[in-house]
């Protein structure tokens, strides 16, 4: 029991952060609006969780312009992908312990 | 995506609460010390998460005496088992979305 708890990543305890990581793990990049619609959360809520994941360097941001309008796209980093995969593995262990 | 996020239970976001529920789902009852050793957490940390789960009525408490010493044992409630199973199902969906 101790092991799978330890292997769960505190950075991914929030549902919204889990959702952001899951979305970015299967999409090369997503912009703020796409993430927001995907997860059905408020701007403020999404922004604070994005900030937390950026601080951990689990996601990165690309700022460009499309038709002179700013376009901010997020992507999962290499270490973010690794950390998320480890978290998923720990969740799988938890689930198996229940079967 | 929206669905599995919504189906994740906010009460189980914390690793410690997940651990308490997982432990009580597979053991009829556990006392405070057993849970503490199982999860390798401090008294204060465990107590606060137990309190939160009791408030949700996901776990219950039985207070008895063994050799005149108080013995407090925790168990999962019927609605706790249901809520935890739904949470596990939502986690399974999240994991499947990553494969």
UniProtKB/TrEMBL annotation, chains A, B:
<feature type="domain" description="Winged helix DNA-binding">
    <location>
        <begin position="16"/>
        <end position="95"/>
    </location>
</feature>
<dbReference type="InterPro" id="IPR036388">
    <property type="entry name" value="WH-like_DNA-bd_sf"/>
</dbReference>
<dbReference type="InterPro" id="IPR036390">
    <property type="entry name" value="WH_DNA-bd_sf"/>
</dbReference>
<dbReference type="Pfam" id="PF13601">
    <property type="entry name" value="HTH_34"/>
</dbReference>
<dbReference type="InterPro" id="IPR027395">
    <property type="entry name" value="WH_DNA-bd_dom"/>
</dbReference>
<protein>
    <submittedName>
        <fullName>Transcriptional regulator</fullName>
    </submittedName>
</protein>
């Amino acid at each position: 029991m101790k092991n799978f708890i330890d292997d769960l990543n505190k950075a991914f305890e929030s549902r919204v952060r889990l959702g952001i990581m899951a979305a970015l793990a299967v999409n090369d990049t997503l912009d703020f609006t796409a993430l927001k619609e995907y997860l059905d959360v408020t701007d403020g809520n999404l922004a604070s969780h994005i900030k937390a994941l950026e601080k951990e360097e689990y996601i990165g941001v690309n700022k460009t312009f499309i038709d002179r309008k700013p376009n901010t796209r997020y992507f999962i980093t290499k270490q973010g992908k690794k950390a998320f995969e480890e978290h998923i593995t720990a969740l799988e262990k938890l689930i198996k312990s229940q079967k």
